[in-house]
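Project standup — Tuesday

K.O.: blocked on the structure for the chain from last sprint. Re-posting the sequence here as requested.
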Amino acid sequence: QVQLVESGGGLVQAGGSLRLSCAASGRTFSMYDMGWFRQAPGKERDFVAFINWSGGSTAYADSVKGRFTISRDNAKNTVYLQMNKLNSEDTAFYSCAAQFRGSTTWAYWGQGTQVTVSS
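H.V.: unblocked you, prediction finished:
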């Protein structure tokens, strides 16, 4: 089992920045690829960013490329999402997820954190 707890959400003005954190406990964190997802009101959950177990490979949704950066610190069992140049379309509930190395199934999810961008 992997337990995930997100933090760092809140209210920010358009153009501002936030850094989300996702702390993992349980099994060895470095065995898992990690991802960030978001869900806006009335919409489906969307992929935001991915980082593999070592941190050597990342991927982003087109809508956040160049503005968001995913990173991880395996010594701290934490994955981060640095969000810059935020706009109103980034307003959503953000969740982190974990999948075992090489798997295609997101097996574990955190409770999420709300990000609200005011214009």
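K.O.: great, moving the ticket to review. The longest strand covers residues 18-26. The chain has a mean pLDDT of 96.
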